[in-house]
Structures are given as structure tokens and as C-alpha cells.
Amino acid sequence: MIQFGASMVSWIANWTAASGRYAIGKAAAAGFDLIEISLPGDLDLGMDIQELKADLAEAGIDVRFSLILPQELHMPFYPEKALVHLKKAIDLVKEAGGSSLVGVLYTAIGVFTGAPCTDSERNTVIAVLTDACSYAAEGGIWLALEPINRYESYVLNGAEQTLDLIKEVDKDNLRLMLDSFHMNIEESNYYEPVIKAADKLNYLHIASSDRGMPGLDNVNWDELFKGLAEIKYSGALVLENFSSEVEALRGPTSLWRTSKYGADDLARGGLHFIKEKAYQYGLY
Q1: What residue spans of 60-175 are helical by DSSP H?
Q2: Which of the residues 36, 121, 146, 186 is marked catalytic?
Q3: Distance separating alpha carbons of residues 41 and 68, to the nearest angstrom
């Protein structure tokens, strides 16, 4: 069954006990089914996991966890350290009662060599992810890889490229995550990547091409939702937008211009839009 989610970055940049409760409350009040927590580099949420579970239960929403490897753990350079970090993140997800860890699990954003990913680097990533998936499977956790655009990484940029790597890892609990913002840069259309992914796709970031309001941009949303309908998509649709109201995110997300919409307007407007599209294409 489709779940509609919001990334915590709709309201906050960093998770602490206080900011986390604020974001959970905002997500619940806006009508989302779940909140996505972006794990910090040190994996410290600043609160006891039991507190987190209690806050989520009180708000009546679910949780998903995402991760981007820190630069000092860029997987092709530091495979052993990256694996240790992934295992710690998987342990946290399990303790929190989560089912998945998604995101940029294979690289650090902003680390480049000046050349395409080599066969040796790719094989390193495959080996580490194979071990990580085996470890995650013991706790009933699945992982999903998010390809990101060429200006952020050189390792995995497109859906087909990522699906090929997933096939080589050959673990049932390794899936694909797509992000409409990155797709707008790297894919020739929105339909074919979804169709090719089929049941390997079970997590999707809904993000406009300008990081603003979905539907008021140049993303071909009808192509995307047509594909989702054809594969009978039943995963999460998670809004990932950024407002310059959240000052701590201006630098990390390159929000050099003042956003047209406030954080709450973006969240509520984005949710309304994706629910309308999901309904239009029979997804719920």
C-alpha cells in the first residue's frame, strides 16, 4: 500500500530530541504517513531510540531512515570503514523498529577523482554492499540505493547503471530508490527508468526540478506516475523539498535565492499534489 512521507528536511536540518519532535509534529499535522530521518554522519540522533519510538507512536506516523556516507567514508576509498558505518546504521534502524535504510549508501557527495568510476572502484562497492546486505538481512532490513546527479558523485548517476550494480550484488534485500530531482538531470525521461526497475523500485523521493513546489516545475509528472501505475508501485512516495526558511539548509542545498514558499506551504502543497497524482493514476 502506498505511503506518503516527508523528509525531515522539509522543516529541520539536523535531528535532535527537540527538533525531531518538532518535525514529527509537523509531518503528522500536515497529514503524512511517515517521516524520513536523515541520519547524521556520526549516527547520533541526540535522543534515546525508545524516546523516538514513543514520539512516533504518539504522533501516529511511521519512520524511514536515509543515509549519505560522510566524505571520510567514501566507499571506493575506504571500504572497510564504510562497511563498519553501514552496519552501525543498520543496527540503529533495527533498534528503532525500522524496515529499511535508503539513500546514498555507496559514496560521499562531493568526492571526485576527475575520472569515471573504474572497474576496481565498482567492484569494491559491490563487495561492500554484498556484505552489508547480508548483515541487514539478518535483521530483516532492506537497503535501497539512490543514484545522484553527476555534480554530486561519479559513482552511480542513473537508474539503469544502478540496476546493473544491484543485479551483480544479487541480494534480495537490495533495491533501487529514485529521486525526481536527480532524474531530471540524468534521465532522458521519467517513464522508462520506472518500468525497467519494476519490483526493484520501492522508494521514491518526490522533488521538483527547482527544489520548490511539485507541479510548478518542469518535471514530467505524468510520465513518472504512468510508470508507477504500470508497475503497480506500492512503496513510499516521500516529499523532499527545501525552503530557505530553514536557514541551516541554505548552504548545503545551494538555496542562494529566497524560496517562493515557506516550509509548511511546501509540505502541504507537495502532499496535496502527489496525492492527486497518485489518485489520478489509481495508486490509491
Answers
A1: 79-95, 119-138, 159-169
A2: 146
A3: 8
Nearest one of 49, 52, 38 to 7, comparing CA atoms: 38
CB contact set of 198 (below 8 Å; sequence gap of 6+): 231
Given 121, 152, 186, 240, the catalytic residue: 240
Domains located in the chain, CATH noted: 3-280 (3.20.20.150)
Number of H helices, E strands in the chain: 9, 8
Three-class DSSP category at 101: strand
Is 146 catalytic? The answer is yes
Please report, in tens digits, the pLDDT of each residue of the chain (284 residues total): 899 999 999 999 999 999 999 999 999 999 999 999 999 999 999 999 999 999 999 999 999 999 999 999 999 999 999 999 999 999 999 999 999 999 999 999 999 999 999 999 999 999 999 999 999 999 999 999 999 999 999 999 999 999 999 999 999 999 999 999 999 999 999 999 999 999 999 999 999 988 889 999 999 999 999 999 999 999 999 999 887 777 777 878 777 878 788 889 999 999 999 999 999 999 98
Phi, psi of 198 (to 5 degrees): 50, -125
26 φ/ψ angles, rounded to the nearest 5 degrees? -65, -45
Is 240 catalytic? The answer is: yes
